[in-house]
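Good morning,

Both structures are done.
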Amino acid sequence: MNISNSRKCSRNREFLLLLVVFLAWIGCHPALDQAPKHLRGHSHNPSQDPLFHFNPKEVTEITLLKSDPLQNTPWFSSIQKSQSTWILSSVLPETALIDRQADTNFIEHLLDSFGSLQITSPAPHGSLESFGLNPPAFAFRWKTATHSYELRLGSLVKTQGGNHIERYMTLDGISVHIASGTTLRLIEQIQSIQSLRKKEWTTLDADDIDEIEIFRPALHPFGAKTKAKRALFAQMEGDRWTNQQHQALSADISSFLIFLSGSPVLQFVDSKTQVRQILNHLPQAYEVKLTDRSGKKTSLSLWLQGQKVYGRNSTRPEGVFQLNPKVLSALTALSAPPDR
C-alpha cells in the first residue's frame, strides 16, 4: 500500500470513528419531541413559527460535529459552561489543548442565533445523503437543565447570489427543509477546533482596572537575574492616573490598558515541552500586576525569544500564548522615564 492510500485509509478510519460517535450521540433515534409539530414527519409549507423555544442563558452544554470528508478530517467537540465561561471539555480526534477556554462571546452568539433560523421552503424530494445530511455538514446538540435540542445542517443551497445564505436542514432526521438565518453565517467561521478557542489572552475589562504595576527583571553584569525592579506604578484617582506621590502621570495609561486587554493570541502554545522551555529557560521581559475595583489581582507575565513574545495570564494559568510584539513595545514605552 502506498503512502497516499495509507493516508486515505487513515482519514476514512477517523471519519468512521466520528460517525460512530455521532450515532451514539443522537442515540440512533430522531429527536421528535424537540422538533416543532409542523416539521415532524414530512415536509410542509414554510412557517414563521420559531424552530426552538429556549433561553440561551440556560444552556449548560453544546456539542458540535463538523464533517466534510472531501476536504478535512471531521471533528467533534463538547463545550461546557463553567460559571460565566465556556470550556472545551472534549475533542475528537484527540487534540493537545493546554488552554481549553472557548470563545464565550462566539458560543453565546451562536446560541442566540439559533432563534433566528427560519424555514424558507420544503426541500425537493431526495435522500439525506443528497442534501449533505448523512452525515450532516454541521450537527449541534445543546442542553438546558430540562431539555435537549438538536439541529443538523447539510449542504449549501444554490441561491440567486447576493448575501443570502441557505442550507438544507433537518431536526428529526426524517423531514428536510431549506433554512435561512444568522446561524448560517456564523458557522462559516468554524473551520477547525481553533475557531472555537478564546482568542483574547486576558479576560480583563480595561475600565475596571484601578491600579497597575510594571516590573522588569534586572540583570547582573554577568547575566544573572536579580530581584525585579518596579518600572511603573499607576493608580486611578478620580478621572486621572497618578503615581504613589499622587502626582498626575502624563502617560496614557487608559489607552495602554485597552490595547493590552484587547490584544489577540497569535498562536496557542500546545506543546508541554515548549511551555516548559518558555517558563524555565527564556528570560522574562516583564511582569504586569493589575488590580481591579473590587481588589481582584491579575498577573501578566511576558517572555522574549528572538522576535517572538509569549505571555501568560494568572487567570488562565495553564496557557502560554504567542502575542503581538507590539505588546512588548508598548510596555517598554509606558515604563520608560520620566514617569516611574
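Second structure follows.
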Amino acid sequence: MVTEALWLTLDLSNTLTRPRSHSNMFVVADQLGRLRNTLCDIGTPKDILQQVALRRLKVAEIASEAFGIVDWVVHNLWQSAADGIFDGCERTVTAHKAANAARTLSSLGSETQFYRACSIHYDALSLDSPSPDITLAVMWFRQNVSKNSPPDQVEEMLRAILSQSRLMRFGFKQAKLTCNQLSWRICNPTWTMLCADICANMEQRPVSNNKSLKKALRLNRRVICILEKYQDFRPTRIRPLLAHTHFACARHNAARNQGSLAEKDFWSAIELQTSVVKIGQFGDLETLRDMVQACVEHRLKSKRWNKALVTVKQSLELVKSHPPAKSVILSAGFDGFRRFLESSRDVAALPATWTFFDTLGPFHRSNCVQVLLSVVDFLTTLSSIYREIGKFLDALKTSGNALDIALELYSQYPRHVDYYFKALACHANSASADEKDAISHRGRALRSLAPRLVELLDDIR
C-alpha cells in the first residue's frame, strides 16, 4: 500500500507538469481522489490527510471556475468537499461547499433524491451547533438507498449515520433501526470501518433492553470478523477500530452480566490498543486508559480482586519500553480501584486494595504527575473509608501516606497545590476518636495549611 501511494504521488507529479486542459484536470482530480483513499488506508497522520484534502478541494474549485457547471466537475467538487469534512478540514465552511455542490447535482437531474439527502446532511453539518436535520437526512437516505445502490451512495448514507451518532444523542429506537440497517451493509473494509465508528458512538443500552444489546453485539461481532481480515494489511487504520469494537463488545457483555465474555473482550481491546500506542499514535493513550480502568472496575465488581491486579500487571508487561503508556496504565489502575471503592464502600475489598498498592507502590515513585495525582485520590478515598468503619489508626496512616505523596507532588508541580490541600484536610480528619487529640491534630494541620494558603492567594493576585 505504501508503494502504491508513492507511485500515485509520482503519477500526480508528472500530470501537474502538463498544460491545463479539460482532460488533464479530470486526470488530476481522479489521481488526487485515489491518492487520498490510499493514504487513508495506510493510516496517514491526520494533519497530512488534512493538507491533501485542502489541496484537492482547491483543485476542484479551480476546475469549477474554469469549466463551469459540468456534471463531472460539480461531482468532483462535491466529493472533494465531502471527503474533506471527514479528513479534518474546517467543518462548517467545507460542509457548506459540499451542500451547495449537492444541490447543483440535484438540479442537474442526476440521482435527485440522493443528492437532496446529501444537501440536507451537509447543510446540517455547516451549522455551529448540532442540528436535528441530520436525522432528517438519515431518513431520506434510508428511503432512497438500498442493498443494490452504488457503493458511493451506501458509503454516503453511512457517513450521515456516523454524523448522527457523533452529534446527536442516539435513542433506543434509533440505535435499533441503525443496527438493523447496518447489518447488511458490511461487505468491504471502508464500510466496515464506518460501521465500527458508528458502533463505538452508540450509547451503551441499559440491561432492561437486553434485546437491543444482543443486536448490537451481533453487529459488533460481524464488524470484528471483517476487520480482522484486514488488520495486517492496514494495521494503523484497522487496529484502533478493532480495539474500539472489542471494547464495545466488552461493555455490552458486562451489561448483560456475561462476565467471562466481557473479560475476554476487555483484554483483546487492551492488547490491540497497546500495539496501536507502541507504533507512535500517542493520541490513543487516553483510550488505553479508559480500557484498563473499565476492565479493572469490571473485575472488582465481580469481586475478582486478584484478577484486577493481574490486569494492570499484564498491561504493564505489554508496554515495558513505553514510559507514557506505563504511566497511563498505572493511573488507570489506581483510578479504577478508587472509583469502585467510592461507589461500593465494600470493606471486603480493602485487603486486596492494599495488596494492589504494595505491589505497584514502587512504580508510582516514578514521579509521573498523572500517576501521583491518581495515587493521592486513591489514598484519600481509602482513608475516608477507614474513618467510616472506625479504624482511625489505619485512616491516619493512610492519610499520612497521601500527604507525603501530595507534598512530593506539590514540590515538583506547584500548580497542583489543591491536591496538597486535599491530602492535608484528609489527614486532619483522620485523627483518633479522642476529641482532644482530634482538636490538637486539626490545629497542627491548620497551622501548616495557613502559609500555603497565603502563597496560593498571592499567586492568584
